[in-house]
Amino acid sequence: MVVMSSYREPSGEIRHQESNTRAFVNERELGSGTLYIAESILSWKSSTSEDGFSLEYPHISLHAVSKDFSNFPHECLYLMLDADVDNTEADDDDEEEDNLTIVRFVPADKGILQQLFEALKDCQLLHPDPNDSISEEDEFDGDDGADAISDITIQMNSINNGNGNGHSDDAMDAEPGQFDDAE
């Protein structure tokens, strides 16, 4: 399984190209270069050498705009890959969390982060994960999940109104914006 490969020139339409973008793989900074978000692959190429890498979209498990300075000192485009690229032959005894790689892109212009996120989202949609497909048996029956949403709403109302289990609304308080979408 190839998750991260040497730099490959993107083919097809490039949805976004951003120079002066620093790349980090796990805790290691690779330097500054150009980020290419293309329909075929996501690539980054160093501006000082021929070094770089390319990522295939199905291996990107999660992507987000991160502004959490407690875990990383810069606003960034955050990607979680479904494999450990530093140790692709990990022992079977390792926990699943050990088989992840975090890639962060820090553009010089932080105002561009949302555009990077949108371009990545659009390109990733072109490469659905075959393991995420819905089988014919799992298809919805046409109610668009209204019953499931109703059940969730009822459960949440029960939690918020106190259901005799000793939990109060104070225990459910969240900081404003803590769970906002990247948009």
Automatic annotation (TrEMBL):
It is found in: Cytoplasm; Nucleus. InterPro entries: ICln, ICln/Lot5/Saf5, PH-like_dom_sf. It comes from the Eukaryota. Gene3D superfamilies: Pleckstrin-homology domain (PH domain)/Phosphotyrosine-binding domain (PTB). Keywords: Cytoplasm, Nucleus. GO terms for biological process: cell volume homeostasis; chloride transport; mRNA cis splicing, via spliceosome; spliceosomal snRNP assembly. Residues 128-147, 156-183 are annotated as: Disordered. GO terms for cellular component: cytosol; methylosome; pICln-Sm protein complex; plasma membrane; spliceosomal complex. Residues 134-146 have a biased composition (Acidic residues). Its main location: cytoplasm. Involved in both the assembly of spliceosomal snRNPs and the methylation of Sm proteins. Chaperone that regulates the assembly of spliceosomal U1, U2, U4 and U5 small nuclear ribonucleoproteins (snRNPs), the building blocks of the spliceosome, and thereby plays an important role in the splicing of cellular pre-mRNAs. Most spliceosomal snRNPs contain a common set of Sm proteins SNRPB, SNRPD1, SNRPD2, SNRPD3, SNRPE, SNRPF and SNRPG that assemble in a heptameric protein ring on the Sm site of the small nuclear RNA to form the core snRNP (Sm core). Belongs to the pICln (TC 1.A.47) family. This is Methylosome subunit pICln.
